[in-house]
Every structure is written in C-alpha cells, then in structure tokens.
Design brief:
The chain starts with about 25 loop residues before the first helix and ends with a strand. Strands 5, 6, 7, 8, 9, 10, 11 and 12 form an eight-stranded mixed β-sheet that branches. Strands 2-3-1-4 form a four-stranded antiparallel β-sheet. It folds into four domains: about 130 residues, Orthogonal Bundle (N-utilizing Substance Protein B Homolog, Chain A); about 45 residues; about 50 residues, no CATH class; about 220 residues, Vaccinia Virus protein VP39 (Rossmann fold, 3-Layer(aba) Sandwich), CATH 3.40.50.150. Helix 1 crosses helix 5, helix 6 packs antiparallel against helix 7 and helix 17 crosses helix 18. The chain has about 475 residues and is α/β, with parallel strands linked by helices. This is Transcription antitermination factor NusB. Keywords: Methyltransferase, RNA-binding, S-adenosyl-L-methionine, Transferase. It holds the Pfam family Methyltr_RsmB-F. Belongs to the class I-like SAM-binding methyltransferase superfamily. RsmB/NOP family.
Length: about 475
C-alpha cells in the first residue's frame, strides 16, 4: 500500500489558525471524488487527467490512486463510522467537506499514514475546499473536521466494524453493507448468482475480492505482438496476457505502439471464446455489436486477421465509436470497419454474419474491483431498462447471424436477471437457437475450471475464483 510523508502541519483546530495550502496528492484525490459525485465520472478515467493536472510524481500518483479508489470502495463503512462521530445527519454535512472526511477516514483506518498527518492534512484540505469564500466558514469547517477525525482515530478498523455493522447472524446483507461496503441489494444479487450451494464464506470471499485493487493485465494482440515481449507474469488462462510486474503500461513499447493493450483476462477470454467456437460453413464476417471502447474488438480483429476474416464494430455513441477506431489503429488492409449505429437496428442484412459478439450494457457489478463507484451509482430500478435492452440486443444478434453461425452474449455482471434471465428467454422463445457449451470450451481450450454458469453450458467467471472480472458468457448457435 502506498505510503506518504504527510504534508502540511499539525492543526490545532483553532478558529484563528492561518490557512494553508492543501497537499496536492490529497487535493487530487478529492477532485476525483468530486468528479464521481458531481459528474457521474468513473474514477479510473478521471485519475490520469488529475495526476497530470497536479503534476504528481509517480510516488504521489500511487498515493492519490489508492486514496481515491480505496475511499470509494469503502464508502459504506466510512459513512457508518462518520455517522457515529458526527452530531448531525451526514446529509446535512456539506458535500465537499464530507468527501474530505471520507478521505481522512481512509487514511486513518486503511493506510500507513501517521495519525497526526492524516488529520492535519485533511483539515487543511477542508479549509481549502469546504469554507466557501468566507474565512470564518473555512475555519469553522476545519475545526469541525478536526474534531470528527479525532473521534475516528480513537478506534482501529476492526473495532469500528464491530461497533457500527449490524451482526451478520441477524441480517447478513445489512452487515455486509457496512463490513464489506457493498449495498445490501448488491450483496443479495451476488449471493443469488453464487447459488444456494455457496455458503457465507464464499460470499465473503467474493466481497473481499471486490475490495482488492486488480493487478494491471496486458494483452499482446496476436500477429502484432508476442507475449514474451511484454514485461510481466503470464496470465493463467489467456495465451496472450501478462500481469504487469510494475510501472506504467504506457511505458511498455508494444502498448505505446498499439500492438498490445491493457485488458482484463476475463475480457480476453470473451473474445477468445467467440473466436474458438465452431461455425458451420463460411467464416468471413465477425461483428461486435456493442463495441465501445474497443478492447474486445481489437483482440477479435487481430484473431480474425489470421483467418482472412473481417471485423465490423458497431457502436451507438459517436465518441465511443471514436475510441474503437483509436483502439484498432491503422488498417491498410481493410480488415475491419467501425460504424456508428444502434445495436438494435444496425445497418446489416439479417442472416449474413458468421460470428457475433454482444458485450451488452449492464450494471457492471462484475467489475467492482476496478470501478468501485458503480456499487453506489447503480440502483435496483436500473435492472428493468437494462434487461429490456439486453433482450433486444440478443434478439437482433440472433437475427443477424446466418444458420450455422454463433453469437456470444457476455455481461460484466453476474446478476441473474442480466445473465440466465436474458439468455433463457431467448432460447425458450426461438425455435432457431441452441445453447452451446462455452464452459466446456473454456475448460478444454484454456484450462478454465469451476466456471459453470447458471444455465447448463454457460460460464461465469469470478474474481475470487479466477482472478478476473465476473464475466458471464453464453454461446448460442443459429439453427436452420
């Protein structure tokens, strides 16, 4: 875990204390939380720009990343702790001040930051961002932060969990909401996806895995790069991946040149499974129906190029279609194309596609390791609209593939409504569709075990079992 020397000076919480500049690394982390809260931004996308804006060193950038991401992961616990230390509802605490208090709490309970440094630098941060234009308000906010954080510092993390989390035996989901910092409805959905055979220990293992920052995984695009030229440890399943040993991915020559990229091993397996599936007849046109931002498309394009096949990427959002083009890079041979179009109404003739990927928009609850804010952003009400879209996309995909062609439906979510619910409905409602054994394919081709999905033949990857995002895969064939 990154260490930090502190910065600023110890604060006495005095109303006449002289304002001091906030430590840049902590101010940068606060800016990330502000963007997530006010702009619905994703922390992993905001962080690089914030690091550049504040001209942070590599050491301070690592500190900022852990501080911002860790605070977002553990917000459920930290809000419960702060609620026990504040003499008012947290909803009555100014949002900028509350963000700073969460950052201070993470430093006190989860980072190797001395207590005096965690408190004093957070007080300086509150004085900088939470006082408005009035000096008196700034001093009052700083004094408030100082008093609250001293109460937080009076107990360690385990003691706070014991005090503020409801007992698990009384309400497992409410306990997990605080102790593991997952909303209760998310815990409920994850427990259902694990199945009744999964005891509380496996649920706890999954929630714990969600709170561990993922290692950076790279993929060497076949035909353009070799795995041996990437620095890192070979991935367990993908023959093209490595887990980066350290440093910035952009400093790797193959990444800088677009011959390799950052990509979770689970996402690599989605593209590999589609490419490895048996098709009957021609194998020339591959389509990615929800292509943005282009990671899976790029791996598919590299695999297709070795078979004289062409990849067409379809992406509804114009700016994301641009990201797909950037990810694919130069293509003098014309082996791929990108169109900006709605995946439910793409400019393609039915029955003309050989392989098709539906990487469907979803709740993203399988990627909480890398996008921790998603657990607080999503609501149960989101499921209905997403499921309707997922069904429409899968139905259109099955219309587009020719008899003998295949569709791989994938979500970065294990939620049953988005996985077995969508796929089961398609299979039951169509007489021209059969479900293939993608779990067996992953086992035989790539050594992936213990990945049986909720429907026979489907596959479900898990962070606590496979070290990947919780990707769901279903492989379907269009029959005559």
């Amino acid at each position: 875990m990154p260490e930090h020397r502190g910065g600023g000076r110890p604060s006495r919480g005095s109303r006449t204390s002289r304002p001091t500049a906030a430590d840049p690394a902590r101010r940068a982390a606060w800016e990330v939380l502000k963007s997530v809260r006010a702009d619905d931004a994703y922390a992993n996308l905001v962080l690089p720009a914030v690091v550049v804006h504040f001209s942070l060193s590599a050491r301070d950038a690592a500190f900022t990343t852990e501080l911002a991401s860790g605070t977002l992961r553990w917000r459920g616990l930290y809000d419960a702790v702060l609620a026990a230390c504040v003499d008012r509802s947290l909803s009555r605490v100014d949002a900028p001040v509350l963000d700073a208090l969460r950052l201070g709490t993470h430093q006190l309970l989860a980072m190797r930051v001395p207590t005096h440094a965690a408190i004093s630098t957070t007080v300086d941060l509150v004085r900088a961002v939470g006082g408005g234009r009035g000096g008196g308000r700034a001093d009052a906010a700083a004094g408030f932060a100082n008093a609250v954080l001293r109460k937080v510092a009076a107990r360690d993390r385990d003691a706070w969990v014991a005090q503020v989390a409801p007992p698990a035996e009384r309400d497992l989901f409410k306990h997990a909401e605080v102790a593991w910092s997952h909303p209760a409805w998310v815990v409920d959905e994850l427990a259902k996806a694990l199945g009744t055979a999964a005891a509380g220990d496996e649920l706890a293992a999954l929630l714990a895995a969600d709170n561990v920052p993922p290692a950076v995984t790279l993929v060497a695009r076949p035909g353009r790069a070799e795995r041996d030229e990437l620095p890192g440890t070979p991935t367990t399943y993908s023959p093209f991946g490595v887990v980066l040993d350290g440093g910035r991915p952009a400093s790797v020559p193959a990444v800088a040149e677009g011959r390799a990229a950052v990509q979770d091993e689970g996402s690599q397996l989605v593209a590999l499974a589609l490419a490895a599936a048996d098709v009957e007849g021609d194998d020339r046109l591959w389509v990615d129906l929800c292509a943005g931002p282009g990671g899976k498309t790029s791996l598919l394009a590299a695999l297709a190029a070795g078979r004289d096949a062409r990849v067409l990427a379809v992406e509804r959002a114009h700016h994301r279609a641009g990201l797909v083009r950037s990810a694919l890079g130069a293509d003098p041979a014309g082996s791929w194309g990108v169109v900006t179009a709605d995946g439910t109404r793409p400019p393609l003739r039915p029955g003309t596609v050989d392989r098709l990927l539906v990487d469907a928009p979803c709740t993203g609850l399988g990627a909480l390791r890398r996008r921790p804010e998603a657990r607080w952003r999503r609501r149960p009400d989101d499921l209905l609209d997403l499921v309707l879209l997922q069904r429409a996309l899968l139905g259109r995909a099955l219309d587009l593939v020719r008899p003998g062609g295949v569709v791989l439906y994938a979500t970065c979510s294990p939620v049953l409504a988005e996985t077995s619910g969508v796929v089961g409905s398609a299979v039951e409602s169509r007489r021209d569709t059969e479900l293939l054994d993608v779990a067996g394919l992953l086992a035989s081709r790539y050594g992936v075990t213990d990945c049986a999905g909720p429907l026979p033949g489907t596959a479900q990857l898990w962070p606590h079992r496979h070290g990947t995002d919780a990707m769901f895969l279903a492989l379907l064939r269009r029959t005559a």
